[in-house]
Design brief:
The complex is a heterodimer of chains A (216) and B (361).
Chain A lengths: L6 E6 L5 H10 L4 E2 L6 E4 L4 E6 L4 H6 L5 E5 H6 L5 E5 L5 E8 L13 E6 L2 H10 L3 E6 L7 H4 L4 E6 L3 H5 L2 E10 L1 E5 L1 H6 L1 H13 L6
Parallel strand pairs in A: 1-4, 1-5, 8-9, 8-10
Antiparallel strand pairs in A: 2-3, 3-4, 5-12, 6-12, 7-10, 7-11
Chain B lengths: L2 E3 L5 E3 L5 H11 L7 E10 L11 E10 L4 H17 L6 E6 H10 L4 H13 L2 H10 L4 H12 L17 H20 L5 E3 L13 E6 L8 E5 L14 E7 H10 L11 E6 L2 H13 L3 E4 L6 H10 L4 E5 L7 E5 L4 E5 L1 H11 L1
Helix pairs in contact in B: 2-7, 3-7
Classes of the chains: A alpha/beta (216), B alpha+beta (361).
């Protein structure tokens, strides 16, 4: 099929996934020529262009075709319940979605939690499912970005949040009592875009796999 | 689906699609109509969407059902009608991806996996992640024949490639029949001349449960969501009564088609008909002139505001009106006729003007 337009890749605009995503594309031979204050950027490969979006919005952009491809966490794709292809595990952005409580509580596992409780999280859907499976009734407070502050501020004793090293949790005097999910960064793809641009996308996957050792 | 409780406690819902209502009408009101029956509808349906692109909850669908026939010709007719309809709208690069609900279910069943693992497998097929698919099949001790079948089917992109999928063992009898049926549909599509628009996608599933045979989705490269789709539902009609009738059909999403046309910079073709604005100091001749022009089959508007000449000409220009006509005290006297595009003015009677306009069309 004739190519009529550029293939659009959505990348996290800030935060922990931003730099590794740009790096991964660079290793695959696609340099983002980012201009200041623009959100659609050309790349060194004329077939691709990049857009910068919130990591949490990337799966939705991809599902509805605002972007053809997206680089974002498996945890985020599941949380947004996005119907997309997950074509490749990119390996980086390793993290865990965990349940954490203040260190000084005598709770050791999710089983010890009271029957009815409040949970602060950026991941309402995954949290709801997790606690339902654990037989716990929860009231979920959706917060953006700073769930680890919730116990200190008295908003909620329990949080569900992502952690890479556990450092932020320790600094906020929180301990992990359960794991909801292990996650890494994925290459997500719109289902129609994969049909239309299969060759180009498979070539990109190949390059991403080889991580830059591309022979011309 | 949007569900509510009626005042007497009954659960009622807004229809999310039209096939089920169509089939209900069929079983109650058209049971004795000779088959095959061809139905069409254009209707509103309601569903929830979390898209940023579609904020609406009410959508318009145009669809067809072909009831009482399960031949490859019937599947071919429905697929080609979908392709041709979208092309007729003015859409370019239309493609249709075909899967098979029965084939996928059958192979999932043959794996002998428990339900949860079947869902994982289906997810992997849907994700198109071959590496993880292989890993999963090795972990779950798939026979080499079954492994090969899953991998081959996942990599088939054209219906004709299905002929190379070989499954010899006796437990694949049903699978072989499904594959044969798909190849027969491909033959029918070739007769309709649309086989180059039709692709195969093993992982294609529709959200609706009742499909039993081929399922399909239509799309264009400019829009990330399907424009419409459908499939064969041979076991749905019997749920409404005793009639066992095979059927197939599709629905097209009208708003998505409009979005796709916009994305492809579609321009409505000009109808080529002249548009005339009539004004006069003499109201009775103005009305007479408008009626005379309309009677001649030309679109005519009457100035209602007693506007000045410049206002009239500006209004006509902004509204893509071709001629502004200033009539005198009677229709027999020559009127002043401005050609808005050319910026010229001529004196002639309405009769002569109409002759000219008709010639120009």
């Amino acid at each position: 099929m004739k190519m009529k337009r550029k293939i659009r890749i959505a990348i996290s605009s800030k935060g922990r996934l931003n730099q590794p995503s740009i790096q991964a594309l660079q290793n695959a031979g696609i340099n983002i020529l980012r201009e200041e204050r623009t959100y659609i950027s050309e790349t060194s490969d004329p077939r691709f262009e990049a857009i910068f979006a919130r990591a949490f919005d990337v799966p939705i952009y991809v599902q509805y075709g605002a972007a053809d491809l997206g680089i974002t966490g498996h945890d985020i794709i599941l949380e947004r319940q996005a119907e997309v292809h997950e074509l490749l595990d990119l390996g980086f952005g390793k993290c865990q979605l965990v349940v954490a409580v203040p260190e000084n509580l005598k709770i050791r596992s999710v089983k010890d939690l009271p029957a009815v409780m409040r949970v602060a999280t950026e991941y309402p859907n995954l949290s709801q499912k997790y606690f339902e499976n654990a037989g716990k009734q929860v009231e979920i407070l959706v917060v953006r970005g700073t769930a680890e502050l919730a116990p200190t501020l008295g908003l909620a004793q329990i949080i569900v949040d992502v952690t890479e090293t556990g450092e932020t949790l320790r600094r906020n005097k929180l301990k992990v009592i359960g794991t909801v999910l292990d996650s890494t960064c994925r290459l997500a793809c719109n289902k129609i875009a994969y049909r239309v641009f299969e060759n180009e996308i498979n070539e990109l996957i190949d390059k991403l796999r080889r991580g830059g050792t591309v022979t011309k | 689906m949007f569900k509510f409780q009626d005042s007497d406690g009954k659960i009622v819902a807004l229809r999310a699609e039209m096939t089920t209502p169509a089939v209900r009408i069929l079983t109650t009101k058209m049971a004795s109509t000779p088959k095959p029956i061809r139905l069409f509808y254009i209707s509103n349906v309601f569903r929830y969407s979390q898209s940023y692109l579609e904020r609406e909850r009410e959508f318009w669908q145009a669809g067809i059902e072909l009831i009482g026939c399960n031949t490859p010709e019937a599947d071919g007719e429905v697929l080609s009608l979908l392709a041709v309809s979208l092309k007729k709208l003015g859409l370019k690069e239309v493609r249709i991806d075909v899967g098979h609900a029965g084939l996928l279910k059958n192979l999932l069943k043959i794996t002998g996996l428990e339900k949860e693992k079947k869902n994982v497998l289906q997810g992997l097929l849907g994700h198109r992640n071959e590496e993880q698919l292989k890993k999963f099949m090795n972990q779950n001790d798939f026979s080499s024949e079954l492994k090969e079948a899953f991998l081959q089917l996942s990599s088939c992109r054209r219906l004709e490639e299905l002929s190379s999928v070989s499954l010899k063992s006796s437990k694949y009898g049903k699978t072989r029949n499904y594959l044969k049926a798909l190849l027969e549909v491909k033959e029918a599509l070739a007769n309709y001349g649309v086989e180059n628009l039709v692709f195969f996608d093993f992982s294609l599933v529709r959200k609706i449960e009742y499909y039993s045979g081929i399922v399909f989705e239509a799309s264009v490269p400019n829009l990330g969501l399907p424009l419409g789709g459908g499939g064969r539902y041979d076991k749905l009609i019997e749920k409404f009564g005793k009639l066992k009738i095979p059927a197939t059909g599709f629905a097209v999403e009208i708003e998505k088609c409009l979005q796709a046309l916009t994305a492809q910079s579609f321009q409505l073709p000009k109808d080529g008909k002249a548009k005339v604005l009539v004004t006069s100091k003499f109201r009775d001749t103005a009305v007479k002139a408008v009626n005379a022009i309309r009677d001649a089959g030309v679109v005519a508007l009457l100035d209602l505001k007693k506007s000045s000449k410049n206002e009239i000409l500006r209004y006509a220009k902004l509204n893509e009106i071709d001629y502004a006509v200033f009539t005198d005290s009677s229709l027999e006297k020559p009127a002043v006729i401005y050609d808005i595009k050319l910026g010229t003015a001529k004196n002639m009677t309405i009769k002569a003007f109409l002759k000219n306009v008709k010639k120009g069309e």
